[in-house]
Amino acid sequence: MTVLKKIKFDLPIDNIRIKNLEELREHFSVEILKVYHDGILEKWLQSRSYSDEFNAIQNLKKTHVSDRLLLERLHNIFSTRTIISGKYVIHENRTVTDTKTKLIWKQDSEVGQYTWSDAMEKFSHNVRFAGNNDWRMPMIEELKTLIDKNHCPTIYLTAFPDTPSAAFWSASPHAYGALYVYFGNGDDIWGNKNKEYRIRLVRNGQ
């Protein structure tokens, strides 16, 4: 069986031959849109074995956004940050983007524990962090996307370090209380609203 060898080539940006991600970050410009639309960027990443960035570009190609938003998302992919497990992008401002759901999470949970009513009063909307004022408590279906039963606690700790095996409230009410995720085992269940659980905030990506 013939094994095809990846042929490395330089990425042309602004008349510069880009050889690696560091050079791409240094010379990042609107010109990246052309090599993106032409499929050259994707081929370059694959030839250089940048698998996480390649996967992020493939996910991006599934969306339909304006060139302005596209340029912003490309900048997020190639800015100085870490992308892990082909899913999460860790930013320097301690936020984490899920490339599949497009949700943006606070990397750290809130300090302390809260009853559901107190949490909803304090965190249900318009919380300011990292230059944005639209942070909020997640709905249960959003919170469940963080469950990863390959780990204990059941969350990807590289993206969300220091997460305890504890219960985290969602903003979703239930007939007998409110819904939460217990990251000790990854179950999503309902609990009495007077119980005090932890909080992790989210905002919608663009």
Notes on the protein architecture:
With 206 residues, this protein is α+β, with helices and mostly antiparallel strands. The chain has two domains: 11-80, no CATH class; 109-203. The chain is built from seven helices and twelve strands. The chain has helices at 21-26, 32-37, 40-47, 51-61, 67-78, 116-123, 140-144; strands spanning 11-13, 16-18, 82-84, 88-90, 95-98, 104-106, 127-129, 132-135, 167-174, 177-182, 187-191, 202-203. The strands form four sheets. It has a five-stranded antiparallel β-sheet with strand order 3-4-5-6-12, with no helix packed on it. Strands 9-10-11 form a three-stranded antiparallel β-sheet. The protein has a two-stranded antiparallel ribbon with strand order 1-2. α3 (40-47) runs antiparallel to α4 and α4 runs antiparallel to α5. The longest helix has 12 residues, at 67-78. Residues 95-203 form the Lcl C-terminal domain. InterPro entries: Lcl_C.
Helix-strand blueprint:
Layout: E1 11-13, E2 16-18, H1 21-26, H2 32-37, H3 40-47, H4 51-61, H5 67-78, E3 82-84, E4 88-90, E5 95-98, E6 104-106, H6 116-123, E7 127-129, E8 132-135, H7 140-144, E9 167-174, E10 177-182, E11 187-191, E12 202-203
Antiparallel strand pairs: 1-2, 3-4, 4-5, 5-6, 6-12, 7-8, 9-10, 10-11
